[in-house]
Write a structure and sequence with these properties.
The protein is an alpha+beta fold and about 300 residues long. Helix content is about 35%, strand content about 25%. The chain contains 8 helices and 12 strands. Strands 1, 2, 3, 4, 5, 6, 7, 8, 9, 10, 11 and 12 form a 12-stranded antiparallel β-sheet that branches. A hairpin with a 3-residue loop joins β11 and β12. The C terminus is likely disordered.
């Protein structure tokens, strides 16, 4: 269900009833872009069934799906048409538009081209774990995840989310694990890593399909390079790549987990089984990962 994930902590929220959530979602259902609309976003059915429910609850875990559509206009085409119009105006008036007039002309060209632009769609899964007070967003970049967070905050008044932070930064923790050649309890270090120099040159070293239990890796760290990505496995059940931004990438449930699924789980397309298995594993993985990173960051004594 989740190939990539960013985790947010629920700082403040009194969750409404499930019926109220469904009503709010229905009022923000996805509608495709209009002829001159550059982008649109809204909620769609997590199961993919047309005219189905927009909120799925499996074992108490809430699943939503946001759909976004954009109509990108090729920059080269806009530039070409803009230059042609500027040349024409200059030939007719003797003056070439600049500044505000040029910007308005460019905006008009984009507006004229939008009806002919091909729309692009993407969907993002959202998992709300109300008991753990966490929200997991199926995105690899913070920019995309933040856009989803904005939609969630608009949907649920009073909801306040903050990116999950830990006492140790992932880069600091990964440096220690690699230097000591020892993974934290419950985890193993796999055969992929990226290290970067935190300066203007951004010198980088990447290891792929290569053992990391070597002195060379520790030497790079002693020279000042910091791990930005590290492939890991949790309890021989879930593999993933941890990044310096505390993003989980390339999440994969391993065979020992998938063997639990029975043939009957495919009766509904496997949706309920996918949700139950994925959230069940990640609900155990995340606390272990947070502990390995020194625990959640507490910013003040009152919160502690």
């Amino acid at each position: 269900m989740f190939k990539n994930a960013l985790v947010y902590r629920i700082d403040q929220w009194e969750p409404p009833t499930q019926a109220d959530i469904e009503k709010r979602l229905d009022g923000a259902r996805f509608a495709e872009c209009g002829p001159t609309q550059p982008e649109a976003a809204g909620w769609v059915e997590p199961r993919g069934e047309k005219h189905g429910v927009l909120l799925e609850s499996v074992g108490g875990q809430l699943i939503l799906k946001l759909c976004t559509e954009s109509k990108p206009v090729p920059g080269g085409v806009v530039k070409q048409q803009l230059e042609a119009r500027l040349d024409k105006i200059e030939a007719e008036t003797g003056r070439r538009p600049k500044g505000k007039a040029k910007r308005e002309l460019k905006e008009q060209i984009v507006h004229d081209l939008l009806p002919r632009a091909f729309p692009k769609r993407s969907t993002t899964l959202v998992w709300l774990d109300l008991e753990a007070r966490l929200v997991l967003i199926g995105a690899a970049s913070s920019k995309k995840a933040d856009a989803v967070v904005t939609r969630l905050v608009e949907l649920f008044g009073g909801l306040r989310l903050a990116p999950l932070q830990t006492t140790l930064s992932p880069a600091t923790a990964m440096s220690a694990w690699l230097s000591d050649k020892e993974a934290p309890a419950g985890f193993s270090i796999d055969r992929e890593c990226e290290l970067k120099q935190p300066d203007s040159e951004k010198a980088a070293v990447r290891y792929a399909r290569h053992t990391l239990d070597i002195d060379e890796v520790g030497e790079h760290i002693r020279q000042g390079k910091l791990p930005t990505q590290l492939a890991m496995t949790w309890n021989s059940r879930v593999s993933f790549v941890l990044t310096e931004a505390l993003t989980l990438k390339r999440i994969k449930l391993l065979d020992v987990v998938l063997e639990k699924a029975s043939p009957s789980d495919a009766a509904d397309g496997g949706f309920d089984a996918d949700v139950a298995i994925t959230t069940g594993e990640l609900r155990l993985l995340l606390p272990d990962l947070i502990d390995a990173l020194g625990g959640p960051l507490v910013k003040d004594a009152a919160a502690a």
